[in-house]
Amino acid sequence: MQRRQTPKQPLQVHRKKQTDLSAWRKGGRIDPEKSVQNHQSPNNQKNDSKQDSLEQALSYFEKVQDRVSLKKNNVLQKHLTTVESIALQRGLPPEGFDVLLNVALSGKLSDTVNTRLLKSLIPASVIPETSVVSSVSWLCVSKCSSNIQLLFLRWLITVFDFIDHKERLHALYGFFFSFLQDEKMCPYVCHLLYLLTRKENVKPFRIRRLLDLQAKMGMQSHLQALLSLYKLFCPELVTITLPGKTKTYFKDSEGPWKATINTVRQRKQENSLVSQPLFLGTAQPQSRKRKWNTQLIIPASSTNKNNLEEDREKQRVDFYGTNESFPVEQLQTFSQLLQNIHHLEFPSQMGSVLTNPLLLHYMNCIKDESIYLRLYYWMGQTLQEECTWYVADNKQYEEFKDFLETVYKAECFLQEGFSSCEEFLYKSLPLWDGFCCRSQILRLVSWIPLSSFSEMKSHLYDPLAQLFFTSSLYFKCSVLESLKELLQNWLNWHIIHLDSESDSQAHSLNTTLSGLVNVVAELIDFVGWISTVALRLENNPTFLLYFILDFYETVCDMYLRYNLPLLIMPPAGVFYPALLSMDSVSLNQLCYIMYRYRTNLVAAKENELSKKKILQFKFSSQTYQEYNQYIIAMVGCLWTSSAFQKDIHPQGLCMDDELLKKTTVQEFKTSFNIVYHPAMMGYAVLFLQQAWPDDTTFNFSLIKGKKWNWYLEYLYAQGLKGLKVFIESSINRVSQASHSKA
Predict the structure, then answer these.
(1) Where are the domains of the chain?
(2) Is 326 helix (H, G, I), strand (E, B) or coil?
(3) Which residue ranges does the record annotate as region Disordered (predicted)?
(4) Does the predicted TM-score (pTM) go above 0.85?
(5) What pLDDT, in 10s, does the model give residues 489-502?
């Protein structure tokens, strides 16, 4: 990459907080509390040897003046190997980056050596911002080749979250932007700008430049990413239409560093509970967990203690009169959040937000889209690129589970799903075995945001159905529970947004409501289908039926409870197994569900006749017809003992008397009333024992007339509230009798 002619010297960078390497080599210590002496012990002789070797290597590279060839230069080969081995084993200390970056970008060594040096830049803790700014200044003087510049940019993107501060790096935004004209470097420059962009960086001339590049290069994903970010900050400046959803904006820029960083961290964690890298200056030792959890802790500032205390005092005195940002690492209480809510600067490591309730509160209160965008970007990188599909040892598996659990808890806290998590699920479900991280994956499914049905069907329903039909009964119940929570989250979202809509947005609300109704209807139909098939496959187990009916307890109340103009009856493959169930819990659940269906349908009919709501959706006549068919079947079974004659549902119980007689069942007409029903017969036996303790014949025909009403009161006292509200609402005789008694 050739730039305009400038004096062949790097820019001078202010290094007030940079550790003086020469002072360190002579034994001087800028900060005694953080020096390597504090980490030494009698058992660290091997570490001392490595420190001495690294010290000699850094001293050699700092003194290199003329161009040196790698061939037949044993000293260079020795020190280069030392840097590489220590970097791969333990990572490099903060002080080493200034020396190695300067020599790699100064052009004093061959590209082969420079490449090896850049690939060895593995951080043990943090990377000083001053080292990065100093190395960027070498790009102005064209000392290194374009390949080295490209490799440097890729390294900078990979270790971006390890840089201790970003203010001076942000000041170079315009400098980086000027390199967009290089087609080879453009994708990586866009990636770096995407990480650096703030609202104040969005300027009309930059938007015009990006549009010109897009016209020249075509619709490139990296240009779309930057334009999308600009449009998010300043929609009035970016008026073009951009694609709604792009799975991956940027090329893989992690190169050899990401895997090595993870390997170094894993090795440190295995060796000790608290890592002890080569700390040669002011950097604090940090706990080194694996990649999933490394960014879940807010990074501490790498300035020394005295400066940090001075900064705190200054903020206490001057905060309310200035626009200074409040460091999140100092945020400890909710009162601090309220006092500094307009001055918080989020950490570069966005993953730390997930585990900080105060920052999650901030995200809920201040709807800053840029924060969500940064969080989605980080989460997308972590989930989508690093896990497709995850297979590792037990220790890493547990850490991955904890990471997914953390994401789920953050979604619950914010009461909304993350789009990057949705994309991860869509990519992962076709590869998922249904066992790995089952609880976490299904919990994340319950927070998938609303999408079009075509996308949900191909990415969620189809792969989930394949697993559902081929897995255990427990897995089927877990999926049904997850889909019930997904439906509830969608309905809660509808209630919140319905309350926030104004009358002036009636037209857009109607469009949104129509889309929501369609997507919810498809979800309910999908659950009805898999439930019907599952009951046949598993031979109608009570455990499975409970979860299916639990889902329909939400469905039956959508109109009144969630103000959604939609009611869908359960399919016959669910209704009749519940009606004929051997378990009283399932029958009681079904009675309550049918009672709530009736309540919602009556309310909808009344609203429709009164025409109170202009935008009121009308239920189809098929819904009322199907409800009436089910009611006839239930009343015929439980009350009038006429189900076999009067059930008019196409998949119902209607059978000829001649066929029923061939079953040789006596009194077949009463086989499913509230006395003889298999789910109720146990209650009938207990009632007879209490009413006629001396009669051991268990004559069920005695339960009639006044004894019938006594039996009903006995059932109600046993906690069958669903049966009670169904009978009192759907059967006139009992309803009138109870009212007259009252």
Answers:
(1) 47-253
(2) strand
(3) 1-52
(4) no
(5) 999 988 887 766 54
